[in-house]
Amino acid sequence: MDKDTRYDRQRLMGARLAAVRKHYNLTLEQMGESFGVGGTTIQGWECGRNQIDAVLLAAVAQKMGFTTDWVLLGTIAAMPYGMAIELQRLAALSLDAPEGEKRGRGRPRKSTASRATILA
After folding, report:
1. Cα–Cα–Cα angle for 58, 63, 69, nearest 5°?
2. pLDDT tens digits, residue range 88-105?
3. CATH 3.30.559.10, domain 3-99+108-119, yes or no
4. What's the pTM value of the predicted model, to 2 decimals?
């Protein structure tokens, strides 16, 4: 796999991770604290600069209610329909935004899971 293809895949995975964080209305720091990493680490994953470790990805997926297949491959089959549609929408917005720039297209819809559950 060439360097550009690898970067594109990492960027897609990062956009999907960003979508999950936005779905739960978490800051970079809040999500990082939940998994024992810093906000800059989360930001590195989201922009495709760094790749999340497979074991940590599995823990994040289990705790936040999505599948690792969705982050790695974009497969939404095993996810609740409403969450799958919302995460796909948020991931697309993350890909559209220039790196380091936030999009002001309204707040993401809140999840049925509470923020306290994710942060616990």
Report:
1. 40
2. 888 888 777 655 444 444
3. no
4. 0.70
